[in-house]
Amino acid sequence: MNNTRLTQALATLTPDVALALTTSLGQQGFTGKIPASIITPVLNQPEKLMPWLTFAAQFAITPVSNFNVGALVIGNSGAAYIGANMEFAGQALSQSVHGEQAAINNAWLHGETGISHLFVNASPCGHCRQFIREIAQHQQLQVYVLGKDKIAFNQLLPDSFGPDDLGNKFALFEQPQQVFVASEQSPVIDEIVEHANASYAPYTGYYHAIGLITSDDQLFVGRYAENVAYNPSLPALQSALSQLRFTGYDVTDIKRSILVHKTGQNIDMAQHYSSLLRQLNALNLDLVELS
Ligand code: THU
Ligand code: ZN
């Protein structure tokens, strides 16, 4: 994949840092991850990580606001993950992905077990604070907003409504693996099923994941991340589209979409996803049920 967006974003970094990132890339190319070898040496000088916010913001899609948010989270492995906001022209604002959500989703999909630091170029909004409240390590999370002093997450969201309020003992990043089985099997469906089983839906049981297949047969899978306050939940389609963006593909490169979902629950998002996919690239959503 010729990732022209990456090329543009690299131009915002100093040449040595840009070179360190490009030489670290493997066969898969850029997937939104910055290796620990680049991050760890400067972790005690947070100001040196701020340029990554400008880099991350290059991946934003903001046809509605023209306000580009760049975020970076550091995972427990020491690697960092970028995030950028994504808006959908002609759709409801509720379809938007916030930069912080994108970065956290990026770390989660890369297999991190938690995050320790969040960097962002604008103060995290209430919706993002509530989204972060769902994470196991939120109590230890350090937040660095561009131009401001470091702040502990708990100071940003005192007296919060959290998973306990709905009797949920689990947390995002520490969710138990589900063991649902799909109504059909294939290598592609099996991979989406794995992600559906790793999705987080403790309040509804509507475990699901969406796979997007590009015309050159690359598969991008997004997982659902539910929230105790419902509305800040990150839909699986947004999760997948956000990852697709980092790699240089566009929505117009998608030829097939598949939703693997646990039906028979109190909610169902198939219609909701179908309508967005139809508008984005005239795509039909194939459905696979889990039981
Ligand atoms: N936005 C974020 O990405 N993070 C925040 O916490 C503040 C708001 C985005 C959402 C929308 O795309 C745009 O900024 C204007 O609100
Ligand atoms: Zn936000």
Automatic annotation (TrEMBL):
Belongs to the cytidine and deoxycytidylate deaminase family. The gene is cdd. The keyword Kinase does not apply. This is Cytidine deaminase. It comes from the Bacteria. Its EC number is 3.5.4.5. The keyword Metal-binding applies. Residues 44-164, 183-291 form the CMP/dCMP-type deaminase domain. Keywords: Hydrolase, Metal-binding, Zinc. Homodimer. One of its GO terms (molecular function) is cytidine deaminase activity. It is an enzyme of class 3 (hydrolase).
